[in-house]
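ping. complex inputs:
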Amino acid sequence: MKKILVAGATGSMGKQTVQLVEKLPDCQLVAVLAPTASKSAEFGASVKSFDNLAAVNIATDIWIDFTTPQAVYENTKFALKHHMHPIVGTSGLTPDQTKKLQAIAQKEKIGGIIAPNFGLSAVLLMKFAQEAARYFPDAEVIEMHHADKRDAPSATAIATAKLIAASRNPENCSQTAKDSTARGADYDGVPVHSVRLPGYVAHEQVLFGGPGEALTIRQDSFSRSSFMQGVKVALSRVMDLPDLVVGLDQIL
Amino acid sequence: MKKILVAGATGSMGKQTVQLVEKLPDCQLVAVLAPTASKSAEFGASVKSFDNLAAVNIATDIWIDFTTPQAVYENTKFALKHHMHPIVGTSGLTPDQTKKLQAIAQKEKIGGIIAPNFGLSAVLLMKFAQEAARYFPDAEVIEMHHADKRDAPSATAIATAKLIAASRNPENCSQTAKDSTARGADYDGVPVHSVRLPGYVAHEQVLFGGPGEALTIRQDSFSRSSFMQGVKVALSRVMDLPDLVVGLDQIL
Amino acid sequence: MKKILVAGATGSMGKQTVQLVEKLPDCQLVAVLAPTASKSAEFGASVKSFDNLAAVNIATDIWIDFTTPQAVYENTKFALKHHMHPIVGTSGLTPDQTKKLQAIAQKEKIGGIIAPNFGLSAVLLMKFAQEAARYFPDAEVIEMHHADKRDAPSATAIATAKLIAASRNPENCSQTAKDSTARGADYDGVPVHSVRLPGYVAHEQVLFGGPGEALTIRQDSFSRSSFMQGVKVALSRVMDLPDLVVGLDQIL
Amino acid sequence: MKKILVAGATGSMGKQTVQLVEKLPDCQLVAVLAPTASKSAEFGASVKSFDNLAAVNIATDIWIDFTTPQAVYENTKFALKHHMHPIVGTSGLTPDQTKKLQAIAQKEKIGGIIAPNFGLSAVLLMKFAQEAARYFPDAEVIEMHHADKRDAPSATAIATAKLIAASRNPENCSQTAKDSTARGADYDGVPVHSVRLPGYVAHEQVLFGGPGEALTIRQDSFSRSSFMQGVKVALSRVMDLPDLVVGLDQIL
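pong. complex structure:
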C-alpha cells in the first residue's frame, strides 16, 4: 500500500487527486497540506491535515503537488529531503530550480516526476509526432481552443512544433510558399495555426504529408478530469524512477 | 436528345467532357472545336471538327467551353448569338466581359452558365457555409493543398471566407485574439489558414463554433475527374435557365 | 416586447430557458409553470408562478414547454386555445397527438413549433445532408457518443439516414460489399455506424463520396447549453409562423 | 555504394523501385530479374538483365523482391544463400515458408526484411495505436475505402484491431452496448467499422477515448507511390539487420 500526501488538497486539481487516491486500491491518503486543510471537512478522520510546510511531521511514500508557483520549489525540496517521491503538477518551476531539485534527488537517491501536462492524449500526441517526424519531415500543427483563450499559439502547440523540428532532418523538408499570414506562425520551420471558436474546448492536431500519403494525430481535451489519468500513471511508476524526470512522456 | 459542341476538346478537361457526353444517354456529341481538332483521331466519324471559331457553321443546343482565357469571351459570345446554351468552365473572363455576355444573353433570350468551379463538393461547401454562418457567425477556414501550390490562401478559400462574412451578422461574432500570425490571414474578419504538405491534393474545411457545439464542413478533391459531376449537373439544367448565371451554386 | 411563459421552469432545460429569456432584450418572462414553481426562490417578484395547468390565468405571447411526455399534449393544447404561440422542446408527443395539435392550431389560426432537437449544429447537419444527397447519393453516417449511451444508433443518426435515403435517387448509388457487420446497420440503404467511447459527448458525421471527391459534414455537441441557441432562433420566428410546424429545420 | 538487384523489375511496383534506386545517391542498380527483362528497353546498358532465377550469376548487396506469390519463396531463399540482404514486398509467403526463410537467414548469418505493407503512414498508425492502447484501452477502428473494395474490414484494419487488443488490459475497458450491427465487427473486443464510398482511396483511423479526452490517429493513402518511402527506409537499414524480420514497424 503506497502512502500518499497531497499538497494543495483543497484546490481544484487537489480535490480531484484526493478523490483519485481514495479510489485506487493500492494507494492510501495519509496526509494533506493546504492553508485551510485543518479546517476543511473534506478529509477523513484518519487523514492528517497540515496547514503549512513547517508543520509537516510525517514521511509518506509519495508527495503529490498541486500548489502554487510560490510554494512548489520548497515543497518539492522538502519531499526529496524526506525521501518522499514527488509527483509535481504545479507549474512555475524555473529551469534553474528544476536543475537544483534534480541535483538534490540524485544526492538523496530518490526518483520523482515533474509534469507540466498530465493530459495523456496531449502527451502521447507529442511523443508520436516526434517519432513520425523522422519519417515525415513535412508537418504542420493546428490547435483549436475556445474563443476566450488570449494567447496564440498554445504552449503545447509550440512545444509540439519544436519537438518535430528537433526530430526531423530539415534537409528533407519540402519548400513551400511562406509569404502569407495564412501560412501561420513559424516555429523552427514548422507552421503553427491557431483556431479560436466558441464551443471548442482544447484540441490539437498534427498533420504530416509525404509522397502519396498523409498521417494525422489529433487530441481533444473535453474537461480537466482527463488530467487524473496522467496522475494515475505517475502514481504507478514514480516509486521505480531512479531520478527526477521532467515530462510525463518520459515514463510512458 | 441534346446536341453538344465541345470547345477545347483536345485539352485535359475537354477530353474528359467528350467522354462524359458520349456516355450520357440524352446527349449527343455533334461537333468539336480545337486548333488541331480536324487532325485528331479521337473523335468519331459522325462528329464535325472545327479548327477555329470562324469555321463553325453549325448550331447545337449546348456549347461547352474548356478553352483559354484568350478565346473564351469570343466563343461564348458566338454561342449566345447562335442560340447555343453555353456551359463555360474556362477561367479568365473579366467582370466587364461577364456583364457584356449577360446583356447579350438577355437580348437573345437564351440562358447559360459560367462556372469558375465545377467541383460539386467545393460548391456545396460554399453554399452550406453561407447558410450556416447565419446561425454560427464565428467561423474559420482551413484549406490544405499539395506542397507545390504557390499561392496561399487558395482562391476558393478566399471566396468561402467572403461568402461567410457577407452572410453573417458581424455584431454576433466573438472577439478573439488576433495578434499572432498563427491566427491566419483575415478576409473580411474570417481567419483563413493554409496548409501546404506533400501527399495532399486539394481540401478545404470550414469550422463553425457556438455555445456548447461545433459544426464542420469539409470537402476533399482527390482528382480532376470530380469536375465532370458538375458538368453533368450543368448539362441537365442549362437549357431551362432563363439567363446567363455565374456559379454552379446558382443551379443546385 | 414578447411576453413569455416557461413551462417546466424548474427543470434543467427550463432553468436555462429562463436565463435566456431574461437576457434577451426583446423578451420578458412574465410567468412560469412547474409543480413547485410557487415555492421556488428562483423567479423574480414580477414573475407569476403557477403550480399546475388549471391555475394558469394569463395569456402570454409565447409558451415555451420543457415539461414531461405526460404533460406536453395538454399544455400545448392549452397554449394554442389561449392564443399563445407554443415552442415545444418536450419529447413524447405521438404522431396522432401532433396531428391533433396541428388541427387545433389551424382552427385557432395560431402558429408554433414542435422541435425534437434544438441543437442547431445537428439540425443544420440534417438539412445539409438532405441537400447534398441529391448530388452525392453515396453516403454513410457515423455517430459517436459516450460509452454509457445504451441505444445504437442514435435517434438523430437514424433520422439523418432516412432523410438522405428519401432525398437521393437510389438508382445512382454504388453497389458496395454489405456482407460484414463492419458495414454497419442499414437504414433505407444508408449504412449507419455507432462509436461508443468514454470522453466523447455527442457527435455525428455524414460522409459523402463521388468520383474523385468527398464531402463531409460533422457536428459536435459538447454540452446541453447548445440547445439555447435553437430556442433563441425559435423565439425570434415563432410569432410569424402561420401554422404549427415540426422540426427546427423548417424555420432555418 | 550499395549494389542492388530488383526482382520483378517490369511490374508496377518494380518499375517504381528501379526509379527510386536510380535516384538514391548511395545505391546502384546493377541487375534486374523479370521474365522479359532482357527484352526491355527500360534498363541502362550497365544493368544486367536476367529472365529467370536460374540465370542469375551475380551477388549484390541487396535483393528487392516485388514478384509473385509463386516466385517469392525461391527468390528469397536464393538471395539469402548468396548473401544478398532481401527486402521482400511480394505477398503470399505462408507462415511456414517465412519460418523456413528465417532459419536459412540465421544459418547464413544474414539479415533482411519481409514487409506486407510498405506504407509508412499505415505502419506508423499501427505502431502508435499499439502504444496508445496501453493508456487508452477503449478504442475503435474506422477504415474507409473506395466503393469497389470487396472485402470488409480491410486486412490492415483487422491487424490494427488485433494489435490494440493484444496491447491493452481488457479489464480496464468500458462496457458498451454491442447489440446492434451499427456497433461494427468485433475483433478481439475492438469494434471495426468499414466505410465504402466512391472517391475515397484507402484511409484508416483509430479513435481512443478516456475520461474527458480523446486521441485519434488517422492515415490516408492517396496513391501507391507512397510505398516507395517505406522501401527507402528498408534500403537504409536492411544491411544492419541481424536477422530476417517481418514488418516494417520492426525497423522504425
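The CA atoms of residues 83 and 133 of chain A lie 39 Å apart.
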